[in-house]
UniProtKB/TrEMBL annotation:
GO terms for molecular function: 3'-5' exonuclease activity; magnesium ion binding; nucleic acid binding; RNA exonuclease activity, producing 5'-phosphomonoesters. It comes from the Bacteria. Binds two Mg(2+) per subunit. The active form of the enzyme binds two Mg(2+) ions in its active site. The first Mg(2+) forms only one salt bridge with the protein. The gene is rnt. Its EC number is 3.1.13.-. SUPFAM superfamilies: Ribonuclease H-like. Belongs to the RNase T family. This is Ribonuclease T. Mg(2+) 1 binds at residue 23. One of its GO terms (cellular component) is cytosol. Keywords: Exonuclease, Hydrolase, Magnesium, Metal-binding, Nuclease, tRNA processing. It comes from Buchnera aphidicola. The active site is at residue 181. One of its GO terms (biological process) is DNA replication proofreading.
């Protein structure tokens, strides 16, 4: 049985997974054909008392990969001009490799086994990330191939909301709709939301798991 100090380590909190918060803005809904235009990543850390916090941030504007599709409705929605030189966009290869290297380093430092994507409606971001990794023929992918932590599902459980803005407001976080659909802003809000949900569960006595208390609650 782990000690209290061991329970306060990041690698013990999520079954040896290293959670990484990600948001991706794209030029459509098809991860195999539509361009990935922007990606942001926030790593997480636990303090000595076991409270979860945000750590480092990466953010890239990305040039559409060769032959990719740009859906006019998608860019009208996220207000990204893929070919604006002022974006400072870099290649998909450089962005993804930088992100994967950061995740690998975090996994090593925290003593974790695998990275896991944390995102709001996580299947969307996970699918685009996996498609990019496959497209770039990267063999050593530090992320779990199909497991994710979805803050939409967690928010539905905890506060009865699935929309990011509403979930943030429900837990007492501010949300600026004018900044929404920016990968960096949405990642920051998702990271703050995830930390709040995890820490709230701990505050309520849900972590570390107390089997005796759980069984008593179920009997009642």
């Amino acid at each position: 049985m782990p000690t209290t100090q061991e329970f306060n380590l990041l690698n013990n909190r999520f079954r040896n997974f290293y959670p990484v918060v990600i948001d991706i803005e794209t030029a459509g809904f098809n991860p195999k054909t539509d361009a990935l235009l922007e990606i942001a990543l926030i790593t997480l850390k636990m303090d000595k008392l076991g409270w979860l916090h945000t750590a480092s941030t990466l953010h890239f504007h990305i040039k559409p990969f060769k032959g990719s599709i740009i859906n006019p409705d998608a860019i009208a929605f996220n207000k990204i001009d893929p070919f604006n030189p002022l974006r400072g966009a870099i290649s998909e290869k450089l962005a993804i490799k930088s992100i994967l290297e950061t995740v690998k380093q975090g996994i090593k430092i925290e003593g974790c086994r695998k990275g896991i994507v944390v995102a709001h409606n996580a299947s969307f971001d996970h699918n685009f990330l996996m498609a990019a990794i496959q497209r770039l023929q990267i063999k050593k992918n530090p992320f779990h191939p199909f497991v994710t932590f979805d803050t939409a599902a967690l928010s539905a459980l905890v506060v009865g909301e699935t929309v990011l803005a509403k979930a943030c407001k429900a837990v007492g976080l501010t949300f600026d709709n004018n900044q929404a659909h920016s990968a960096l802003y949405d990642t920051l809000q998702t990271a703050n939301l995830f930390c709040e949900l995890v820490n709230r569960w701990k505050c309520l006595g849900g972590w570390p798991v107390n089997i005796k208390n759980t069984n008593t609650f179920l009997k009642n």
